[in-house]
Amino acid sequence: MVTPPSVRTVAPMPFQPEAFFLAADAGRPGQRMCLFHPSHTARSVGSVLYVPPFAEEMNKARRMAALQARAMAQAGFAVLQMDLLGCGDSSGDSADATWHDWVGDVVQGARWLRERSAAALWLWGLRAGCLLAADAARHLPDPCNFLFWSPVTAGKTQWQQFLRLKLAGDMLGGNTKGVSEALRQQLAAGENIEVAGYGVSPGLARGLEQAVLAPPPVAPADPMRRLEWLELSTREEARLSPVAQMALGQWEQAGFAVRSRIANGPSFWQTTEIEDAPALVSASLEAIGSAAQSPALAH
Questions:
Q1: Which residues of 134-157 are buried (b: 16+ CB within 10 A; e: fewer)?
Q2: What is the spatial distance between Cα 85 and Cα 95, in angstroms, rounded to a whole number?
Q3: What is the DSSP letter of 269?
Q4: Is residue 183 part of a domain?
Q5: Domain limits at 23?
Q6: CA dist list (Å): 166 to 60, 95, 155
Q7: Is residue 211 part of a domain?
Q8: CA 1 to chain centre
Q9: CATH classification at residue 118
Q10: What's the domain count of the chain?
Q11: Which residue from 145, 95, 94, 141 is spatially nearest to 297, judged by alpha carbons?
Q12: What is the mean pLDDT of the chain?
């Protein structure tokens, strides 16, 4: 009799990220690709939702977002990364999305996290993702904290920078006359436009252009909420810009406990090659970790 070879059962690795599709709320199309990083500790010290930046900045930042999400999970945070409508592996194309759709995605992601943990919720935004996070927070039933990476304080600035990509491309082709005006007319007529391979709907363009980094309302009975504002620079003795300092003052006046810091590293969302900023990962862990240890800021 031949003895069958032994079958080795391989136990699943603990704390592995879980990839899944989240069906959009009623009234919004399709599914959203999500990656959930469970806390590596017995008790989660907080929940974090990553809100990505706009267009190509989102793709350039994917590696840094993954590195930070894994580090947060190892430190005891439950982290959700989500591709918004028309981005990555989620449903639709970029031209299908409006600003309202993206705000709805952030709200739904935050609600998904909240249903799984009562720990403090952090909205972690990068660049224009900070604008989305601040906007979405106005639609959440519970207060949340914010971790901002090099935030855009006015969507109009981001939109103008984005349109310059179209102008630069047309300059190479020798056609620059009236490009900006033609794009405005297309959007005003309800037509989508295409810039650097990204389709943009009038609803997305209008929402981004009108967005400002204003703090959500704070009720007197709300627990203290925190804003951790982190910038990157390769220059020694770098300081926050006057615009950033003014925005921080507005959030502080609105009732937030605010802190800012500049970490050493490249602006990875716009570099030609994919680059890392390890100092930013460490600074972020210190920022939200210290807040989680404070009883006044734990909920």
A1: bbbbeebeebbbbbbbbbbbbbee
A2: 9
A3: T
A4: no
A5: 18-166+223-297
A6: 19, 16, 17
A7: no
A8: 62
A9: 3.40.50.1820
A10: 1
A11: 145
A12: 89
**Which tens digit of pLDDT belongs to each residue from 131-185?**
999 999 999 988 999 999 999 999 999 999 999 887 766 655 555 556 778 888 9
> How many residues are given for the chain?
299
Q: Is 271 exposed, middle or buried (0-12, 13-18, 19+ CB in 10 A)?
A: exposed
Look up residue 200 and give its two tokens.
Answer: 């943009």
Per-residue pLDDT of 23-77, as tens digits, reads 998 778 899 999 999 999 988 899 999 999 999 999 999 999 999 999 999 999 9
Q: Who's near 76: CB < 8 A, 6+ residues apart? A: 39, 40, 41, 43, 44, 45, 46, 292
What is the rounded CA–CA span in Å between residue 231 and residue 5? 57
Residue 187: inside a domain? no
- Whole-model pTM: value is 0.90
Distance CA 196, CA 218 (A): 39
The dihedrals phi and psi of 293, each to the nearest 5 degrees, come to -80, -10
Flag whether 99 is in a domain.
yes
Instruction: Tell me the Ramachandran region of residue 20: left when phi exceeds 0, alpha when psi lies from -120 to 50, beta otherwise.
Output: beta
Tokens (6 digits) for 150: 């090099």
Q: Which two tokens stand for residue 112?
A: 């998904």
**Token reading at 290:** 């210290």
